[in-house]
Amino acid sequence: MPGQLLMKGNEVMAEAAVRAGCRFYSGYPITPQNEIPEYLSWRLPEVGGVFIQAESELAAINMVYGASAAGVRAMTSSSSPGISLKQEGISFLAGAELPAVVANVQRGGPGLGNISGSQQDYFQSTKGGGHGDYRLLAYAPFNHQELWDLTMTAFDKADEYRNPVMILTDGVLGQMMEPFVPTEYVPPGLPPKDWVLDGCRGRPPRVIKTLYLGEGELERQNLKLQKKYQRMKEAEVLYETYMVDDADLVIVAFGIAARVSLSAVRLLRRRGRRAGLFRPVTLFPFPEREIGDLAEAGRRFLVVELNLGQMVEDVLLAVNGASEVRLYGRCGGSMMTPEEVVDAAERMESLDTRRRVRVSLK
Amino acid sequence: MPQVFRRPDSLKEAPFRYCPGCGHSIVHRLIAECIDELGVRERTIGIAPVGCAVFAYDYFNFDVIECAHGRPPAVATALKRLMPDRLVFSYQGDGDLASIGLAEIIHAANRGENLSVIFINNATYGMTGGQMAPTTLEGQKTSTTPQGRDPSLHGHPLRVAEIMATLEGVSFVARTAVDGVRGVKECRRLIRRSFECQLSGKGFSMVEVLSPCPTDWGMTPVESLRWISNRMRSTFRTGIMKDRGVDDWRRG
Fold first, then answer.
1. Are residues A133 and A213 in the same domain?
2. Could A66 and B78 be called an inter-chain contact, meaning their C-beta atoms sit closer than 8 Å?
3. Are residues A229 and A257 in the same domain?
4. pLDDT of amino acid A210
5. Which residue segment(s) compose the domain that A217 sits in?
6. Residues in chain B whose beta carbon is closer than 8 A to a beta carbon of chain A?
7. What is the pLDDT of residues B188-198, one digit of tens each?
8. Is-contact B17 B55, C-beta < 8 A?
9. What percent of chain A has pLDDT over 70?
């Protein structure tokens, strides 16, 4: 297709960030995300931006905190163990209501784990991650087109909500190449940043802080943040469905697991099974209403993810006992095949359906 | 009658709520006086640490950002790189700078970031109740070294200014003490020098200030000042460790 580019997933995110106006990046080397800092180390100076290789993930996320306070679109990226280190700063960004984009090119864990693709950081990305009661808007791209588009969206949404936004991808998408259309960035109308610290010329001094010691102050701040997360739940849910209209079995999967699951759905259809795919694009907010509606309409669910049961908990909450939910997970950087997913789906067909709610591994 | 003493514009109309005899109030005022003198209040961004001085934003009458424990040099790095014409300084205690944030301060200095750092060394963790700091003196009793700091168990007092002086990226580093009129005047001079160093683009500078914490030392304010003069100054030598002229300055 004319106008397409062929790039590595990590570089797609890096270039999309630049096009979306990102002018500050700091990061620390970790596989499998190194192409992002490597690309931005030359690309950001080209557009007058600042690239800093930080001494640690802690320094990197706190540099982003400073850059964001200066009103500049700022980003960092890492992979799972490094994202754990960044949680301190992410909590501070959320508390101080500073926008930032964080990309997690997930690898296997816990600990050092390995460097293969994984989805083992779902809980961390969708339930806060660091200390305190906060949420990140979390996007789960599943191809390079979405890596491009959602990276741009992430910067807009970070500014709109004054909140850090997580791009939750994985080592497979980050490392592979595929074509995509580099759509033009169209800036949305956003309010001016009237909270930036750039010197108090002609205005009263400003403070950016996260400490609230006064009686009831922190509770008020927490409630204010919760209202913001509620607004996200109402306005930001994104998902995609494939062949769910007549399906009696719906596979729920995100990111790279959704690509495998899409192949599995096609195989199942060829065998005459009425299977479909529901793919959350935002993991927070989670498309709970939509999955709940499908459950009420009698669909059964197979959750397919590269962990041993994380998103399945959100699916269970959404289904709320109205239907059957099972899990097929691979972990530790191992990848499932479409055939494995087909087997899991077919095993489910033969199950005793009198027991309606069921979660089990494989 | 001519007015010879007044509140600097860079201080808000707020009484200091630090403990009686605490050094933070003195150093806050000195910083404010220097910023007034240099005429840069409206282009200054200060960084408040974790610790008692987290409340710096209640007193400084310019933009202030509060950040995570030990991370002010990282935050300052980004602010200054993105706004090179602003005065950016971090204000950090010894737990913040010399313990949890040692990596951040060393690397910001080693990169030669054009920043000023005011480092308050009171040989203890003030806000959390007087635990051992990296700068606690040998034999000094704290709430976590009730028998006194034993170097064989707890290590030795960390001399940060001397370490910083060895780094290529550092253009100015000095240590002083606010234990008397002479020390206070010297401190003011050194802070101003650090700010001028930044404003003229000379690169990283730090002023370490030996500062009293009567509450956690279990002393009266006057005893605290004597303890700085008689004890702290012999472990932490005051003076200018490094002062690199403009001509010598090379950005890496």
1. yes
2. yes
3. no
4. 97
5. 5-235
6. 12, 41-45, 48, 54, 57, 60-68, 71, 73-79, 81-83, 86, 103-104, 106-107
7. 999 999 999 99
8. yes
9. 96
Regions of chain A where pLDDT drops below 50: 352, 354-357, 362
Who contacts A234 (Cβ-Cβ below 8 Å, separation ≥6)?
none
User: Model pTM?
Assistant: 0.95
Of A63, A199, A211, the CB nearest to B77: A63
Angle (CA) A119 A125 A131, round 5°: 135
Alpha helices in B49-179 (DSSP H): 56-59, 72-82, 94, 102-110, 151-154, 160-165
Q: Give the tens place of pLDDT for each residue, B202-244.
A: 999 999 999 999 999 999 999 999 999 999 999 999 999 999 8
Q: Is A39 on the interface with B (CB under 8 A)?
A: no
Residue in A10, A14, A8, A20 with CA at minimum distance from that of residue A183: A20
pLDDT at B22 over 70: yes
pLDDT at residue B250 greater than cutoff 70: no
Peptide bond into A110 cis (omega under 30): yes
Of A211, A235, A259, the residue that ends a domain is: A235
CB atoms within 10 A of CB A13: 32
Distance of CA A189 to the CA centre of its chain: 24
A228/A272 same-domain check: no
ipTM score assigned to the predicted complex: 0.95
Residue B237's Cβ-count burial label (10 Å; 0-12, 13-18, 19+) is exposed
The CATH number covering residue A14 comes to 3.40.50.970
Question: How many distinct structural domains can be found in chain B?
Answer: 1
Question: Is B249 a residue whose pLDDT tops 70?
Answer: no
A314 lies in the same domain as A194: no
Quick check: is B10 in a domain? no
Which residue from A24, A55, A208 is facing B82, i.e. has the nearest CB?
A24
